Amino acid sequence: MRDQENSLSRSARGHRKPPDPTTAEQQERFVHLVRLGWDLRALGVRTSLVLPVTGQPILEVHSAAGTLARITVIRRYCGWVFTWRPWWARLWRRGEWVLADADNAADIVMTEVNG
Asked: pTM of the prediction?
């Protein structure tokens, strides 16, 4: 009987899944985008957070001129970065990304979106 109980407890433990790393990464993306949206709001910029059922969360930034920029956050070797260019243009050219942890990230994004 004891062997059966031990084998059951071992098999029951095998069914518990560790946290999905992609879920943790998605949550981290969400937190970065919410923080950026809040910082942009304080600067008088209208934003909308889009959480699609599939795919990455996006922060839509509405400029004073009425144009719409879509900000995504991706992880790179230097850390998390905000980018406002399409996925195929995410090469490391100046003016297309900013570190998510930068104190002036909202200012840089606002300048790029309005510029």
From this structure: 0.74
